[in-house]
Amino acid sequence: MTDFVLIPGAWHGAWTFEPLARQLRAHGHQAYPLTLTGVGDRRHLISASVNLDTHVDDVVNFLTDQQITDAVLVGHSYGGMVITGAADRVPGRVAGLVYVDAVVPGDGDSCWSLVTERERAWYLDGAGETGYTSAPLPFFDARATPHPLASLLQSIRLEGGLDRFRSRDYVYATGWDGQSPFSGLHERLIGDPAWRTHAVASGHNVMGDAPDELLKILLTAGRD
Q1: pLDDT at 47
Q2: φ/ψ of residue 3, rounded to 5
Q3: In Å, how far from its chain's centre is CA 147?
Q4: For the chain, first and last CA: distance in Å?
Q5: Is the pLDDT reported for residue 224 higher than 80?
Q6: 198 forms bridges with which residues in the sheet?
Q7: Given this model, what pLDDT does residue 164 score?
Q8: CB within 8 A of 121, min separation 6: which ones?
Q9: Which of 40, 113, 170, 223 is most buried, by the most CB atoms less than 10 A from its CB?
Q10: How many angstroms separate the CA atoms of 212 and 206, rounded?
Q11: Is the pLDDT assigned to residue 127 strictly greater than 90?
Q12: Sign of the C-alpha dihedral, residues 49, 53, 56, 58?
């Protein structure tokens, strides 16, 4: 049995992973989709002080409170920042990492620094209304909510490398409308034997566009 902790991307809540979580549970695993502070059904907690550290704390506190010691952390898009930071904080609680069309930061990187000008423009959309939120895009699911802007801008601080974890998987979506911001990252990871890479015929919303293929990938994650 594997404990999967599933972290959505910006503007999205746990609902984006819930169908996949049900499938993982049906295969005998534990699956915990989390909603990060200030987003989704926790949108009442949004403020100027909510940042990347807050979201890393969300995951670290969950792993600690649930006494999980062999987790596979799954992060979509911005969620790659969060799972990297959480794994670095409590490496003894993490077995594997799965990045689903996501950023993979090194020390000092931010989500802002790792994406293209197109995504940066998305981040700043709506920021003028409050000064500290990023508005969801018009084509998102109606459940999407404003996202804490500071979490997208803050640089991550890491103490160690990803080589501490038993497995690392990268799921690359090939069906972007235009250039994917993750193309260069995917090409680099293909040549790294420490990573398992998976190219999936899907838009950025891999959970919705290719759920069966993503399930197959997750069922092998966390293994040597």
Answers
A1: 95
A2: -95, 105
A3: 14
A4: 15
A5: no
A6: 171
A7: 95
A8: none
A9: 170
A10: 10
A11: no
A12: negative
Supply the pLDDT for residue 219.
95
Structure token digits, residue 172: 């690359």
pLDDT at 214 over 90: yes
Confidence of residue 125 (pLDDT cuts 50, 70, 90): confident
DSSP-derived pairing of the beta strands 133-134 and 147-148? antiparallel
Rounded distance between C-alpha atoms, residue 154 and residue 132, angstroms: 12
Residue 51 structure tokens:
């940042």
Are 59 and 83 in contact by the 8 Å Cβ rule? The answer is yes
Structure tokens at 167: 């497995």
The pTM of the full predicted model, rounded to 2 decimals, is: 0.97
DSSP collapsed to 3 states, the chain:
CCEEEEECCCCCCHHHCHHHHHHHHHCCCEEEECCCCCCHHHHHHCCCCCCHHHHHHHHHHHHHHCCCCCEEEEEECCHHHHHHHHHHHCHHHEEEEEEECCCCCCCCCCHHHHCCHHHHHHHHCCHHHHCCEECCCCCCCCCCCCEEHHHHHCCCCCCCCHHHCCEEEEEEECCCCCCCCCHHHHHHHHCCCCCEEEEECCCCCHHHHCHHHHHHHHHCCCCC
- Active-site residue 77, yes or no? yes
Measured distance CA(168)–CA(91) in Å, rounded: 13
CA distance 5 to 67: 13
- Residue linked to tokens 């987003």: 39
Q: Which of 47, 49, 77, 134 is catalytic?
A: 77
| pLDDT given for residue 27 in this prediction | 96
